[in-house]
Amino acid sequence: MQEGFEIYWFRSSEKARRDWNEREDKVAAAMDQLRMLADPERKNRPESENAVRRKVDLILSNVEDWIKVDITLKEVEKFQQLKHGRSSSKTTRCRTVHKVPAIHYARDKNAISQSAAMDGSFPLVTNTSLECSAALRAYKYQHKLEKRHALLKSGLAVAPIFLKKNQCIEALMFAYFLAQLVSALIERQMRNVMRERGIPQIQILPEERPSATPATEQMARVFSPCTRRLLFTENGELLQTFPLPLTPLQKQILSLLSISPRLYD
User: Which of 2, 44, 138, 172 has its CA 20 to 30 A from that of 227?
Assistant: First the structure.
């Protein structure tokens, strides 16, 4: 590219199928609307040519390349008697001619064939030195990074930030990045051990519902009720600690994370 970036072209059979179905759905929907608009018996049908063209342009807003539409003016005769009363063979009538727009439409097979030739093709631009297949793998992994960064706004609640200096904002975001990294490591540890021990799922969701991929936020929620009572002397010396007993689920999570329950004693 002019900016010096590499551009790769790929073709996906799955995307080709989706592109074809999406185009066919749009064309079919537009053809149905045109059929209703061209119906002479339709109520509230636009009478002027300009009004019809505006309706047609609106219908073809996304499919103008795939449907050919021709609007012609058709002369329609009307006879109206000049005087009121019962009509007879001697009644005088006035002939008027109205030009009514008629719509002729059809699928543009050549244009559809040309578009179908590009179905499934998409470009990928990168400023890295990755070769073609590696760039595609990195692109497919991107949605996982986006999902991980979603933790910043949900569980970590990074916004709003009440800081002015860029250095302070960068330092805060670095701390959030470390929290994000720790969260990812906790989840990886939990899921790897579950897989090693053959545990398909644990009852970690609300209402004791099972989860095969427990998240750090769910683990933190399980341990949120953990409390302890401290007994001090009159001089402020700690005399004894009374921790709240751990539940079986909490003990299971600590075991999977290789954390000793004594830390909660």
Answer: 172
